[in-house]
Amino acid sequence: MIRTATPADVPVIHEMVRELADYEKALHEAKATEEQLHEALFGERPAAFAHIAEAEDGRVAGFALWFLNFSTWRGVHGIYLEDLYVRPQLRGGGHGKALLTELARICVERGYERLEWSVLNWNTPSIDFYRSLGARPQDEWSVYRLTDGALKDLGS
């Protein structure tokens, strides 16, 4: 079952964000707090949205955390999927596909024309899964990021 996240889900979302960061070998970079996630998802001006996948026994199996982006070429919003995570012991049960299906449904319903995300180059199980759904890599683009000192230097 896929459902929209509620404020009561913030602790488990935070826990799974940390599990995902650990899986991606970057736990030391996962600094977000439960309070920050609550504000981003449920504050006065939400900046992100989340959906929860539940197993048949009611356990939280995974989550998708996303926000709106905008295409100047297409002139409409799209969804950028920041995190998609299914707990290892519950993988293979269709939860990841169900989460992506729900986001695709939202795109179609609202007239959004893109559903995009990033995946680490070494994560072949996820890459194979995404390809099986018809997703294709955008190989002609490279992601750039400013953080920490470089961001402060440029912004000062």
Summarize the structure.
With 156 residues, the protein is an alpha+beta fold. Helices cover 36% and strands 22% of the residues.
Uncertain residue segments: none
Major sheet details: 5 strands, mixed
Rounded mean pLDDT score: 96
Given helix and strand content, the structural type is alpha+beta
> Rough shape?
globular
Give the radius of gyration.
Answer: 16 Å
How are strands sequenced across the largest beta sheet? Answer: 1-2-3-4-5
Could you spell the SSE succession in H and E letters?
EHHEEEHEHH
Q: What characteristics describe this protein?
A:
alpha+beta; 156 residues; 5-stranded mixed β-sheet; single chain; Acyl_CoA_acyltransferase; GNAT_dom; 5 helices; globular
Chain-wise SSE layout:
Elements: E1 2-4, H1 10-23, H2 34-42, E2 49-54, E3 60-71, E4 76-86, H3 95-110, E5 115-117, H4 124-132, H5 148-155
Parallel strand pairs: 4-5
Antiparallel strand pairs: 1-2, 2-3, 3-4
Helix pairs in contact: 1-2
